[in-house]
Every structure is written in structure tokens, then in C-alpha cells.
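A reminder from the course coordinator: this example appears on the midterm review sheet, so study it carefully.

Given structure:
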């Protein structure tokens, strides 16, 4: 797990496999924007994972592969919350078949697949070791939830511009409280923890500024 040079051939094959799998989804065929989002998210998670790997001395190739494939099970339809909670384990199963076809060493496959399997609810359906490498797949996924794109996405989804001023203030205050709680969350490595706090601080600065602007939006203060 200490090889740091990227295996570009394996990465390209992994990208092709991911795209092929997701493009087979009937849901994504009907919702191309959702397909674009899932691919973009997978790339962002892979790049975050690579940064963690560089900081911790993990295999960059194996981390990028694990992160690219962490949501490959979105190629299949989820039938309710239980299926969604299982999507890490199902993604690991799909990833294993692909990685075995590439003749990767069993130890590498086991580490990659275990990280994928536990990234949703910290549980795998096969034996494995909860190493910092394995935890980093879920850490990279969580970190991607806190960036500039996600601020835009959440405010758009909540129809923020259509809310009353009071509802806007409630949303902002609730978000700031949640960000305070998330500061206590422990990640698997020092590198991931540093990125996590950097992202949360960015979020907090944005919402504090938004809170200030909302306070100035109804009266002279």
C-alpha cells in the first residue's frame, strides 16, 4: 500500500468501467443531469482521496480507484432506504469483479473493496481491517459534501430564493449549529481531518456572512 506513483493505465480502465456501468442505468438514461452529477462527484472524491493518500503515504492509485468506484452501484436501482444503505457493499462487489479481471493482487483488492464497502454505514459483509486507508474512502466522500458546489446545490434544492426572510434565517441558523457539531467529527487520518476543518471553516464563513446579510435585510440597524 506504499506505492505512490499513479498507474495511469489502471486509472483509465477504472474510469471507463465506471462510466460504462453508470451509463447502463435506466434512471440515468432518463436523467442525464443526475448521471453527470454522479460522475463529477466520483471524480471529486477521487481527487480528495488522492490528496489524503499523498499526505499519508498510501498508494495513490489504489485510493483513486477505490474513490472512483465507491458509488458504482448507482448503476442499479435502489428500492428504498435499505438498498441505499447497502450501496457501499454492492459497490464493493461490483468493484471486486472488475479488479479481479485486472489481475490485481488479492491484498490490494481486499483493501480497496473494504474501504468501498464501509463508506456508507461503516459495515462490510465480508471480513476486513478498518485501516486508515479504508476509512479514507468514506472521509473523502464526506469531505466532498462541503464545498462551494454543495452550497449552491443545497440552496437551490431548498429553493432559498423563494423563502420568506424568516425561513431563510432559520435555515442559516440551523446550518451553523450543524457545522459546530460537525467540527467534533473524527476522521481516519490527520490529512483528512485538516481538509475537513478547512472545508467546514469555509462553509461557516459563508453562512456567517449570509446571516449578517439577512440581518441587514429588514430594518436599519
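Designed residues:
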Amino acid at each position: 500500500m506504499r506505492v505512490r506513483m499513479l498507474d495511469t493505465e489502471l486509472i483509465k480502465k477504472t474510469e471507463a468501467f465506471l462510466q460504462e456501468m453508470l451509463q447502463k442505468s435506466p434512471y440515468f438514461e432518463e436523467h442525464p443531469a443526475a448521471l453527470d452529477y454522479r460522475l463529477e462527484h466520483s471524480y471529486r472524491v477521487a481527487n480528495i482521496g488522492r490528496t489524503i493518500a499523498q499526505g499519508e503515504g498510501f498508494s495513490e492509485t489504489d485510493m483513486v480507484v477505490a474513490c472512483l468506484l465507491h458509488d458504482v452501484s448507482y448503476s442499479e436501482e435502489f428500492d428504498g432506504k435499505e438498498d441505499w444503505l447497502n450501496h457501499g457493499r454492492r459497490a464493493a462487489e461490483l468493484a471486486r469483479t472488475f479488479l479481479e479481471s485486472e489481475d490485481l493482487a488479492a491484498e490490494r483488492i481486499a483493501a480497496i473493496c473494504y474501504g468501498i464497502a464501509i463508506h456508507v454505514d461503516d459495515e462490510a459483509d465480508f471480513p476486513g481491517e478498518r485501516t486508515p486507508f479504508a476509512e479514507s474512502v468514506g472521509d473523502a466522500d464526506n469531505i466532498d459534501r462541503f464545498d462551494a458546489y454543495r452550497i449552491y446545490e443545497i440552496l437551490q434544492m431548498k429553493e432559498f430564493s423563494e423563502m420568506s426572510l424568516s425561513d431563510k434565517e432559520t435555515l442559516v441558523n440551523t446550518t451553523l449549529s450543524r457545522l459546530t457539531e460537525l467540527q467534533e467529527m473524527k476522521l481516519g487520518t490527520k490529512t483528512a481531518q485538516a481538509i475537513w476543518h478547512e472545508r467546514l471553516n469555509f462553509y461557516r464563513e459563508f453562512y456567517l456572512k449570509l446571516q449578517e446579510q439577512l440581518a441587514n435585510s429588514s430594518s436599519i440597524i
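The chain has a mean pLDDT of 95. Residues 148-215 form one domain.
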